[in-house]
Amino acid sequence: MSWLPMLCLTALPHLGGLYGGYITRKQVKTWYPSLNKPPWRPPNSAIPIVWTTLYTGMEYGSYLVWKECGGFTEDAVALLGLNGLQLALNWSWTPIFFGAHKLKMALIKIVMLTGAVGATMVSWYPVNRTASLLLTPYLAWLCLATSLNYCIWRENPDGDGKEE
């Protein structure tokens, strides 16, 4: 059963990802195409693959920190708490952007998320370098996503997209 904590900690973010995918699915076919978007945006088909990979890597990192700290100990509280914060910010972005169509609020949220991931990386590094480095692709993706969110907000100030 020593694999159970690894499986649980690694699988956890996928639950929020599934909910986000549910919210996004309809909007990608209706609202999202009506928005002005930069030509360098990733294709919609890449998003589920990217997020599955990122969620798995980042939360395997949380398992490594959890293991290094001896479980949910006093030493792990702040480290895993930061991870929980970034995960909550992550999960809240999709309902704001795709669900409520609040582009500016989503931009604020993703900037906060990016900062929380950076703080998580810094806090994890002395404990488990591999765990910290597993967040690098996530941070890079967030930089791209933040830029995309900004460009979409800038080009669609009302958030409703173009009239069809």
Automatic annotation (TrEMBL):
<dbReference type="GO" id="GO:0005741">
    <property type="term" value="C:mitochondrial outer membrane"/>
</dbReference>
<comment type="similarity">
    <text>Belongs to the TspO/BZRP family.</text>
</comment>
<dbReference type="InterPro" id="IPR004307">
    <property type="entry name" value="TspO_MBR"/>
</dbReference>
<keyword id="KW-1133">Transmembrane helix</keyword>
<keyword id="KW-0732">Signal</keyword>
<keyword id="KW-0812">Transmembrane</keyword>
<protein>
    <submittedName>
        <fullName>Translocator protein</fullName>
    </submittedName>
</protein>
<feature type="signal peptide">
    <location>
        <begin position="1"/>
        <end position="20"/>
    </location>
</feature>
<feature type="transmembrane region" description="Helical">
    <location>
        <begin position="106"/>
        <end position="125"/>
    </location>
</feature>
<feature type="transmembrane region" description="Helical">
    <location>
        <begin position="76"/>
        <end position="94"/>
    </location>
</feature>
<keyword id="KW-0472">Membrane</keyword>
<dbReference type="Pfam" id="PF03073">
    <property type="entry name" value="TspO_MBR"/>
</dbReference>
<dbReference type="InterPro" id="IPR038330">
    <property type="entry name" value="TspO/MBR-related_sf"/>
</dbReference>
<feature type="transmembrane region" description="Helical">
    <location>
        <begin position="131"/>
        <end position="152"/>
    </location>
</feature>
<dbReference type="GO" id="GO:0033013">
    <property type="term" value="P:tetrapyrrole metabolic process"/>
</dbReference>
